[in-house]
Amino acid sequence: MILHLALFTWKGDVTSEDVAELTRQLTEMAGEIPALRRYDCGENLRLRPSDADYAVAAIVDDADGLAGYLDSDVHKAVYDRLLGRMIATRHAAQLDIGSAG
């Protein structure tokens, strides 16, 4: 299984309403992508120092599942509608987290 992590820092004009709407759209989107085994997203709690404002954690079975998620029409639509204009910086990583169970 693969854990995909994405960390975002927002542009200065991003509002709390933008972030709430993004979270709503991403959560709705996740329910439409069969490749996702688990999906979590939200604002950084800032319990430790970090430049990231927001994080996404997605678990998929394999590289094909990751491509199915990231290249899906619903993912692209959220990016086009909202996420793309919000991002100042983005960092991503994928980790092998072994098999389910």
Poorly predicted parts: none
Architecture, CATH level 2? 2-Layer Sandwich
> What is the alpha-carbon Rg in Å?
14 Å
Count of DSSP strands: 4
Q: Supply the number of helical segments.
A: 3
Distance between the termini: 10 Å
Main sheet properties: 4 strands, antiparallel
Return the domain count: 1
Q: Give the overall pLDDT as a whole number.
A: 96
| Overall 3D form | globular
How are the strands ordered across the major sheet? 2-3-1-4
> If you consult CATH, what is the topology?
Alpha-Beta Plaits
Helical proportion?
25-40%
Proportion of beta-strand residues: 25-35%
Instruction: Name the helix and strand elements from N-terminus to C-terminus, one letter apiece.
Output: EHEEHHE
Counting helices, strands and paired strands, the structural category is alpha+beta
Task: Explain this structure.
This protein has a single domain (2-96), classed as Alpha-Beta Plaits, CATH 3.30.70. 37% of the residues lie in helices and 34% in strands. It has helices at 16-30, 63-70, 73-86; strands at 2-10, 36-43, 54-60, 87-96. The chain has a four-stranded antiparallel sheet with strand order 2-3-1-4. The radius of gyration is 14 Å and the shape is globular. 15% of the residues are buried.
Give the tags.
single chain; alpha+beta; 4-stranded antiparallel sheet; 3 helices; 37% helix; globular
List the helices and strands and how they pair.
Layout: E1 2-10, H1 16-30, E2 36-43, E3 54-60, H2 63-70, H3 73-86, E4 87-96
Helix pairs in contact: 1-3
